[in-house]
Amino acid sequence: KNEVEQSPQNLTAQEGEFITINCSYSVGISALHWLQQHPGGGIVSLFMLSSGKKKHGRLIATINIQEKHSSLHITASHPRDSAVYICARIIQGAQKLVFGQGTRLTINP
Amino acid sequence: GAVVSQHPSWVICKSGTSVKIECRSLDFQATTMFWYRQFPKQSLMLMATSNEGSKATYEQGVEKDKFLINHASLTLSTLTVTSAHPEDSSFYICSAREGGGQGETQYFGPGTRLLVL
Predict the structure, then answer these.
(1) Which residues of chain A have a Cβ shorter than 8 Å from any chain B Cβ?
(2) Helix (H) and strand (E) counts for chain A?
(3) Closest in B44, B105, B110 to A48, CB measured
(4) pLDDT digit string (tens) for A33-65?
(5) If 0-12 CB within 10 Å is exposed, 13-18 middle and 19+ buried, where does residue A27 land?
(6) Which of A18, B33, B48, B115 meets the CB 3.0–4.6 Å disulfide criterion with B77?
(7) Which of B42, B49, B103 has the CB atom closest to A90's CB atom?
(8) Do residues B92 and B114 lie in contact, with contact meaning Cβ atoms separated by under 8 Å?
(9) Of the candidates B63, B59, B75, B72, which has an alpha carbon nearest to the alpha carbon of residue B23?
């Protein structure tokens, strides 16, 4: 069992829909990353958070440390949001990231 | 935001040859760089952690003699795949972290696709 579980694995939606991607982890963290990987492979770090909520444009990330759960929300989704979204936890006491399996998001026009 | 570059972006080589991939932090000093490998439809797997001026720390199952990592300066780390074989064909990604504390953001390079024939 992966230490970081994402759901859903695949998500297809229509342009404009509100998107939620979930991430659960099994052990304590110092912080959690949300990453976006485009079809060409490049990875962009969207958020790093250790508590509460962060917002950037149409993207919102929340984390509940007690429940070991984080969500990534996309409002007013657009086809250019189509990508693989990956959550990764930072191992406490170390520098390493442990990745979820990713959620492949497709937004149709 | 901070920029990390990788070179080359694509490489095709014959089996048995060695391939060097460079990872550079362009506008910050990276005390730590990470090397990942990603096979199709799979998530990233950490191969090794590289700290400037010291030996890299390899993850279990990664052969340090096959994947040579050098982090000679605060802005450059290299990964050399020695005697490459077709099973080494993969997408190799580096990331760099500024600062020495926990929790700083990692900035990812654009990746290098390696195809070994």
Answers:
(1) 30-31, 33, 35, 40-45, 48, 50, 86, 90, 92-93, 95-97, 99-102
(2) 0, 11
(3) B105
(4) 999 999 888 899 899 888 999 999 999 999 998
(5) exposed
(6) B33
(7) B103
(8) yes
(9) B75
Backbone angles phi, psi at B5, to 5 degrees: -110, 155
- Alpha-carbon span B41 to B23, nearest angstrom: 23
Q: Which residue has the tokens 């400037």?
A: B52
What does the alpha-carbon distance between residue B71 and residue B77 come to, in Å, rounded to a whole number? Answer: 4
Provide the total of helices (H) and of strands (E) in chain B, helices listed first.
0, 11
Per-residue model confidence (pLDDT) at position B42:
87
Q: What are phi and psi of A66, to 5 degrees?
A: -65, -40
Q: Token pair for residue B14?
A: 């014959």
Tokens encoding A32? 């959690």
Residue A57 near residue A47, CB atoms below 8 Å: no
Please say if the pLDDT value at position B97 is more than 90. Answer: no
The token duo for A4 is 């970081």
Q: Give the three-state DSSP class for B84.
A: coil
CA distance B102 to chain A (A): 6
Assigned token pair, B95: 């990331």
Within 8 A by CB and 6+ apart from A45, the residues are A33, A34, A35, B1, B105, B106, B107, B108
**Cα dihedral sign for A94, B79, B35, A54?**
positive
